[in-house]
Structures are given as structure tokens and as C-alpha cells.
Amino acid sequence: MKNIVNFLKIAEKLECEYRITRMSDNAQQSVASHSWNMAMTAIAIKPYLQNRVDMEKVLTMCILHDLPEAIAHDIPLHQQNDVCRMNKKNQESCAISTIEEMLKNQYVSDCFEEYEKRISSESKLVKALDRLDTTVQHLCAKDLSYVGEYSENFYWKLFFSEDFAKGFDFEPVLRKVFDEIKFRVSERLKNELNVDSNSFVGVENENS
Questions:
Q1: Quick check: is 207 in a domain?
Q2: Does residue 116 sit within a domain?
Q3: Which has the closest alpha carbon to 62: 93, 79, 37, 80?
């Protein structure tokens, strides 16, 4: 029982680990909130999926995919380079090992490893949901101007690139949802910031 309680104390830290994305109240999004949003999206699109998936595994993976960040912390995408990504991967691997040993439950590490390999239908879907939630926050954020503060519009260039959009093509419902979000964000940019979204041209980062 002590180890379960210790694990819960670690998991709680995901509520205190913040991403750069903003919420509708202008607060920074927590990693826990991000994971929760992914699970909600999975539930919403379930009836429209063309590829058969184990939805229990998808939901579990949504909740667990960023669990190592409770120990290793989040690093914004625009701050990452090859060395940083390698260090991050090693730190997260150590974090998962620590959690697995604590819980005596290999399912946690198996689930995380499956997500990282992106071979199964479930892991591919969860990665797409991970990316999709970032676009949802672009839509929901109270003030969109913050997104342009990072590395010469890094996130806008990524979000509006065709390579990024292609990442949703394996499931038509995902691409349709993304296209609707992208359209609404474009309208917000035009109406609120007088910015033409066509001005953003970018190439997808393979680790996004």
C-alpha cells in the first residue's frame, strides 16, 4: 500500500507540470489536463473510427503517455535539439523504470514502450490525439498572440504546415476534426490579430 500511495504522489505532479499551451482562462495547460483532453477526444471520435482499436488500451495510453514527465519534466518542443531529445528519452526511460518497480506492474512500462514505438494502431492513434490536443488549445486559448512569442512563430509554422496535417490522414475523422479546428483558428487569427494564416509556411518537426 505504501508504494501505491507513493505512486499517487508522483502522478499528482502531472497536475503541477505545465506546458506552454494556454487554456480558455489564459492559464497554462498542465500535463494532466492535456492527457485528460486526449482521453475525451478519443471518446468523442470512437464511433467514427475506421480502424479497429482496443479503446481501453487507447484510454490507458492517453493517461500514461506523459507519466514520465512527473519525474523528468516537460521540455517545450521549440527548445529541443538532438542532444536534448536523447537526454529526455533516457530520463523518461529511467522514470518509467522507477514507477514500474514501485508498482510492481510491468503493464505501465509496456504501455509506455508501445506508445514510444508507434507500431500498433492504438499507439498511432494516441500520438495523433497528442498532436490534436495542441491544435484544440490554439482554438480555445483566450489570447492567441502568445503562440507567436516562441522562436519566430515556430508553432504556427508547424501547425499550418501540410506535413503536420498529413499526420491525421490515416483516420479520416481525425483529419476532418483537424481541418475544422484549423479553419476556426485561421478565422480567429484574421479577426482578432489581423494575421493571414496563409503567411505561415513550415516543415513538420519529426518529434512533434
A1: no
A2: yes
A3: 37
Number of domains in the chain: 1
Range of the domain at 63: 2-199
For residue 182, give every residue at least 6 positions away whose Cβ sits within 8 Å of its Cβ, in sequence order, or none.
135, 159, 160, 165, 197
**How far is CA 72 from each of CA 51, 87, 111, 162, 179, rounded to the nearest angstrom?**
33, 10, 18, 31, 33
Query: DSSP class of residue 141?
Result: -
Domain with residue 80: its CATH number is: 1.10.3210.10
pLDDT tens per residue, range 43-85: 999 999 999 999 999 999 999 999 999 998 888 787 788 888 8
In a domain, 83, yes or no: yes
CA dist 88 and 72 (Å) reads 7
Q: Give a yes or no: residue 157 inside a domain.
A: yes
For residue 160, report the phi and psi dihedrals to the nearest 5 degrees: -90, 5
Q: Which of 135, 178, 187 is nearest to 45 (CA)?
A: 178
Element (H, E) at 28: strand 28-30
**Of residues 177 and 106, more confidently modeled:** 177
Give the end-to-end CA distance of the chain in Å, rounded to a whole number: 37
Helix (H, G, I), strand (E, B) or coil at 138: helix
pLDDT at 98 over 80: yes
